[in-house]
């Protein structure tokens, strides 16, 4: 997790606010910034073991578990930002979810951090 002032951190803060608001405070979200809980491999293993409930990892890193997902790391694969979002939220969405979930991880959303 990046520092709180960067995009990933800002998203985590907003997620916390929304979860706590929508549950009237019944659910509490703790945010750990600056890799306090380790790296992406630690996050995925934490999800799989049940010691971590929600995290953010790159699809490129997750491809070490599911090699087919490497396709999304190909440079210049998309013609535009809109095309990229259309691909992952449209025709390929269910396939991506199935590939991720067979490893004991539930995919909630895609988040853009830049592309080529």
Automatic annotation (TrEMBL):
<dbReference type="InterPro" id="IPR038404">
    <property type="entry name" value="TRAP_DctP_sf"/>
</dbReference>
<dbReference type="Pfam" id="PF03480">
    <property type="entry name" value="DctP"/>
</dbReference>
<dbReference type="InterPro" id="IPR018389">
    <property type="entry name" value="DctP_fam"/>
</dbReference>
<dbReference type="GO" id="GO:0055085">
    <property type="term" value="P:transmembrane transport"/>
</dbReference>
<protein>
    <submittedName>
        <fullName>Uncharacterized protein</fullName>
    </submittedName>
</protein>
<keyword id="KW-0813">Transport</keyword>
<comment type="similarity">
    <text>Belongs to the bacterial solute-binding protein 7 family.</text>
</comment>
<keyword id="KW-0732">Signal</keyword>
